[in-house]
Amino acid sequence: MGSDLDLLLRAHEIDGLILTGIATSGVVLSTLRQAADLDFGLTVLADGCLDADAEVHQVLTEKVFPVQADVVTVDDWITSIK
Fold it and tell me: pTM to 2 decimals?
């Protein structure tokens, strides 16, 4: 079962997402994978995510996520939108 989120975002001409969350290896990872499959532009705020396992968080943000997303700090992202 899915949702209408993709249709809703596209109806509002949203083509990019900024991802944060408290489960880097769970919700953030699965959202990134699905959004990448749907061709959204992606940015992950590395220090805006947290995982119970710090090593897993580090591997995801430094090695896995950069394949499909820009990975930046919150401060760098704020600076880039000013």
Answer: 0.92
